[in-house]
Amino acid sequence: MNTTSVDAYLQDGCGRCDKYQTPQCKVHLWTDALVLLRGLVLGAGLDEAMKWGNPTYTLGGKNVVMLASLKECCAVAFFKGALLEDPDGALESPGPNSHHARQLRFCSAAEVKKAAPRLKRFLAQAIQLEKEGRKVERKAEDGPLPEELAQRLASDASLRRAFDALTPGRKRSHALHVSGAKQAETRVRRVETCVPDILAGRGFNER
User: Fold this and answer.
1) Second label for 166, Cα 20 to 30 Å away, from 91, 138, 150, 178?
2) In terms of C-beta distances under 8 Å and separation of at least 24 residues, what long-range contacts does 177-182 make, across chains too?
3) How far apart (Å, rounded) are the C-alpha atoms in residues 151 and 67?
4) Predicted TM-score (pTM) of this structure
């Protein structure tokens, strides 16, 4: 995973797969758009860092937005996007199990330029929310952990500590992966596939 700098990210890629430092890296599909997005976010007065292999922008050490390179587009992801006023419905959820984050997605530099006023308004809102210390209310948990995962955690104190340190979304990704199997034996095998990611502080299949 490339965690050196945003300049290195734009030049070499994200480092999450074997396409790192090749033209096939998905970062290179959206370089022009990402450069424009970076300028707009920095122009809002946020601090820049690399976290989780993505350009991340903070205010007073608190995460506000992140740039992401996807196969079909690039995006600005707002960590507290669920609190943003979005009368036009421009923001999208990253996935069905994402309660807090929202994304503004782009497929070209031209789209970024056209949406710049809207993006600036979202950035101003997000910054004000952080200054006010607003928090997204957590929804009720999806339910207890799958029995096989709970037993594995109970048998390994270091794994339990690593799991407890994960974000709610990352915990949920492991629970969903394990519980998605119908057979108990399959669920046990899935638990073992989760162990390396849990110990590394990642969600399931996160790279």
Assistant:
1) 91
2) 177/204, 177/205, 178/146, 178/148, 178/149, 179/146
3) 37
4) 0.68
